[in-house]
Amino acid sequence: MEKLAASSGDPQRNDLTATGDLFGHIPLAPADPILSTAIAFKNDTSADKVNLGIGAYRDDNGKPYVFEVVRKAEAEVHAQKGDKEYLPIDGLDSFNTAIRQLVFGDSPAITNNLIATVQTLSGTGGLRVAFEFLAEHIPAKVYIPNPTWSNHLQIIERSGLRYVEYPY
Q1: Which one of 34, 38, 58, 100 has the minimum C-beta count within 10 Å?
Q2: Is residue 152 classed exposed, middle or buried when 0-12, 13-18 and 19+ CB atoms within 10 A define those classes?
Q3: DSSP class per residue in 17-54
């Protein structure tokens, strides 16, 4: 690390590595407007409050609730004892086929092979892949609700796209 820092030519970087504070110069990200609804919910003393912010289900005691069907699906996946091999670049074909059918049903767009489906690592990761693809191949404005997750705006901006907000 010292050799890399010394060869960087950046005196600030050299100071950071010498003090051991590699990340101290990075500013904190702004508070997320959607997560702030969770804080407001937690601070509200009303007995009749309902948390409509993040989308996690809760029981009558406010504890996270996992549906039995989700537990059953998890058990089925675990029982398959997958081999943990890397998937193809576009994901698991059986998953892509099933999700395409779930979303589009018997649409002629499927039978005419007009829909591409790609499995991604997560919602945010999927957005990153999609926005970068759009920026490269179909550079247009992106419409996004306000409020939205703050990292989504950063992903759009860093991909080189512009966005237009609409009220949620």
Answers
A1: 58
A2: buried
A3: HHHT-SSTTSPPPPPPTTHHHHHHHHH---TT----SS
Burial of 156 (0-12, 13-18, 19+ CB in 10 A): buried
Question: Rounded to whole angstroms, how far apart are CA atoms 110 and 126?
Answer: 21
Sequence letter at residue 28? L
Residues shown for the chain: 168
The tens place of each residue's pLDDT in the chain, 168 residues long, gives 444 444 445 555 555 555 667 888 888 877 777 777 778 888 999 988 877 766 778 888 878 889 999 999 999 989 988 888 899 989 999 999 999 999 999 999 998 989 989 898 888 899 998 999 999 999 889 999 998 888 899 999 999 999 999 998
Q: Which helix (H) or strand (E) holds 163?
A: strand 163-167
For 97, residues 6+ apart whose C-beta sits below 8 A from its C-beta are 117
Classify residue 9 as left (phi > 0), alpha (psi -120 to 50) or beta. left
